[in-house]
Amino acid sequence: MSLVINCAESPRELISKALEWCKSGQKPVLATLINIEGNAPYPVGAQMLVAENGDFIGQITGGCAEQAIADQAIAVLNQGSNKTHRYGLDSPFFDIQLPCGSGIDVHFDCALSESDLSSIDAELQARRSVTRMIEGVEKCYRPTARIIVVGQGPILVSLTRLATLSGFDVLCVVQNDAAAAPLETAGFRGTLLNTAQPFLGDYYDRYTALVSLFHEHELENPLVLEALNSDAFYVGALGSKRTHANRLQQLSEMGALESNLSRIKGPVGLNIAAQTPEQIAVSILAEVISEMNRNGTH
Questions:
Q1: Cα 44 to Cα 33, 111, 137, distances in angstroms
Q2: Are strands 130-134 and 47-51 parallel, antiparallel or unpaired?
Q3: Structural domains for the chain
Q4: CA 200/CA 1 separation, integer angstroms
């Protein structure tokens, strides 16, 4: 069975969009940041995707040179051969300045075929990473990170909204129809717990997080235990310190390993003195992102 997933507004990688443009007859150009001299807002490997009609998505300089990079991509496409151009320090484009006097090198690839893109996209859809060498730089394409949110309440709705805006796919598993209604009102879809539970194990991998937002905490223990026994990069659960102590005791009695119990973030979220569902959702998402980046699944 395939469970319903709320898809990210901005997927981690641009490959699926490149493939979509290619199939629609728009030749794409992938612009890749391959070198930084000084400081830059995005790391080496950051990419922009430019269509032959001038549309573009992605960021390399945080707004300083994106339009110029898009214009150069069109020029490269018209010339029909890949190029590397310098922006900022020591660049021939004197009118394009980067913060702090930095310089960057951007490689323009106009030779990716629909077959190439389909091959990469198939691996990503299968939740496997793909590595390509781009002008001496190892670019690792990773599947879109996913958060499985289980439970109910306004925090669930807020977290789903923030996470999809932040580039995560979100699978919402709700307790009952009453818990599903606020999600649907907000434009998201959920799956009932009794329907989803037998299949959740198939959705865990090293690019997936679990966030439990149950108020009836006895419902969450089997789900948390399943996540702890998987490759999930993050497991967090709502509740007070006392609730978390009880949770750990119950999970231990269910056979959870001590080393796995220490993985649970509880109470869930960074301590930012959050006071509203939206603020709590921010604290949770920040902790998920921190763990993701620390573990190299970003």
A1: 5, 21, 8
A2: unpaired
A3: 15-141 (no CATH), 146-294 (3.40.50.720)
A4: 10
